[in-house]
Amino acid sequence: MKLEYLHTFLKVVEHGSLLYAARALNMSVSTVSAHVNAVEEFFGEKLLERKKTGVELTEKGRIAAQEVRGILKKLERARQEVAMRSVLPLRIALGNIPGVVLLPEILREYRKLRPDVEFSVFIKNSSECASLLENSEVDIAVACFLEGTLDRESYECIRLGADRLVLVLSEEHPLAKQENAGIRQVLHYPLVTLPESSGITRYLYAALRRRGISPGEIKSAAEVNSVFSQLQAVARGLGAAITSEIAARSMNSKIITREIPDFRVERHLYVVCRKDAPHPEREEFVNFFVEKGKRLLF
User: Fold this and answer.
1) pTM of this prediction exceeds 0.70
2) Domain containing 22: what range?
3) Which helix (H) or strand (E) holds 190?
4) CA pair distance 228, 207, nearest whole angstrom
């Protein structure tokens, strides 16, 4: 049975006439009639009553028409999904830390299972990740989002884990020999800082304000663009830093990482998707990312 015959049959049902269906399909009436005959032969039943005023469905014809519509809709959905799988990359925006620490190994493992899936990857700060997701420019965002950044009702948010802000020092820093330096003692020394748009900086400033400390009390030794540049600057003795524990653990440089006893700050890392914009590969990849990401982090 050719699909064309089924489409012709439904067009005749829609117009109630072989002639009008033929005009709509730009076919001859004899061709339309031949298609309908082939459908009736397939079902082994008379599906249309031919009358002078047109055609009407028989009782069995109504059943056949309903089933044919359902079959053609399913086939069209299948065609669209196959087309999406072949042409649409899975678009992911990640903060610097998940983008550098987690994504490379996760992608290597996932591509062993699904070499057919294409990816478009964007490494941004958390606010830029949120903006890309809100504007439907990406399918998935992975970052530490501040409370209120995203409307939780519009998104599926999966908690991947927690990242603490810790004190990071070189081995030569004056605080390296002091195990329990408090936040005010730390602020006596110049810090290597990140831009105010950075998620780490926004968490740091919010935590300072909650403790009655103005961010203006920070003495900046230098401002750098990424957490990994920040850690390299610390390792080379440019200053201390209050920054991501996950990023600090990933560094091979000789740095010292310490908690600040009176300044415990934790931020949550989320994998976030829009509920209203599904992608055929998204659910599978998100589940894979969460499982492997937790293993890599903890």
Assistant:
1) no
2) 3-86
3) none
4) 22
